[in-house]
Amino acid sequence: MSTTPQGIHSLAFRVMRLCKPSFHVEPPFRLDPSDLFVGEDIFDDPLAASNLSPLLSSHVNKSTDSSDMTFANRFLLHHPSDAMGFSGLLVLPQSFGAIYLGETFCSYISINNSSNFEVKDVIIKAEIQTERERILLLDTSKSPVGTIHAGGHYDFIVEHDVKELGAYTMVCTALYNDGDGERKYLPQFFKFVVANPLSVRTKVRTVKETTYLEACIENHTKSNLYVDQVEFEPAPHWTAKILKLMNSILQITRQLGKEIVKPPILVRSGGGIHNYLYQMKISSPGSEQVKAKRSSILGKLQISWRTNLGEPGRLQTQQILGNPSSCKEIELQVLGIPSLIILDKPFSVHLNLTNHTDSELGPFEVWLSKNSAHEKFVMFNGLQTMALPAVEAFGSTDFHLNVVATKLGVQRISGLIVFDTKEKKTFEPLADVEIFVESD
Prior knowledge:
Residues 338-434 form the Trafficking protein particle complex subunit 13 C-terminal domain. This protein is mainly beta. Helices cover 8% and strands 48% of the residues.
């Protein structure tokens, strides 16, 4: 749609959007010739079914006679592909049509001289105007079009990557000398709206030290989207790995060491969806690791696709946020347990104590808590409290605990407490560790 100011002008702009043509579909309903004569139950009778083919072939040959000017066969289904309604013809775009975020808007612009005399020194400008900015697409100020003859035209093509939703206005202006030498100014405005082709919904879950990001992509357009790339760009100090099921053919191909082309993902029109799952972990050590854990920024998605006729589109999401994971000041981990544990015989448990803060912590005391609803069958062998030295910022220390098991079978080492003697602070106990106790 265009608007032109009042007044008589020799020139006028004509704008056509350049895009791939669409398939021409014939609406008439077609049917199989056999449905005109018999029902589906004829195939229950072998004798009748055997005589059906000669009958239909004679009728079809007669109806397809080139001398038949009634075109009575135009509604007959001669080939299964006829049911799709495709005529083999393509239709050029008749209007701007639907324009979506992430596409490249390409327009063919023609400025026509409809008068009976030529115009001279034509300066042409074309720009895109949005709510936020104006983008210049063409400017011939430095090299004006010398002459446009009567009935002639001057054509050009402009392109713009659509990166903003909402109302757009293409402003085409011409400054020229009319036939009587008068300098005239012609502005014309072409308005269109840019819609969102897809939406991305995300869910973030944290399990221990691992964060999982689920992204759901939904198609809002009227055509199928063939998504050929969905890449997650993690924020600094994070690593991301996509989790997906691989079919047997893909596994075999990779085992043979052959390169294959990654097939696009079909996301159907009008609400089709596809889900992606990413596993994220913190990659940076030291103080940067603490910053990453406390930050709510996880990263952003890069999505690219093509439509039915191959027109490309590309979007980048805003930063995806998640609940910052809790950062433990002190982390206690089990590094090693003997493979053979004998009843009533002491054994050593190898442990590691890590300081995740930027300051020194400790010294510490370690003991087994006695506050439990269940009786414990694994206890310290010797002193009931073990002293540990202070641990420097982002440092760690290894130590061994001598314990003994007093009951056969599967038992648990539980309630191991770490206490900061300087700050008088008790940290979260070690998660239960199962062991198997055997007899001598």
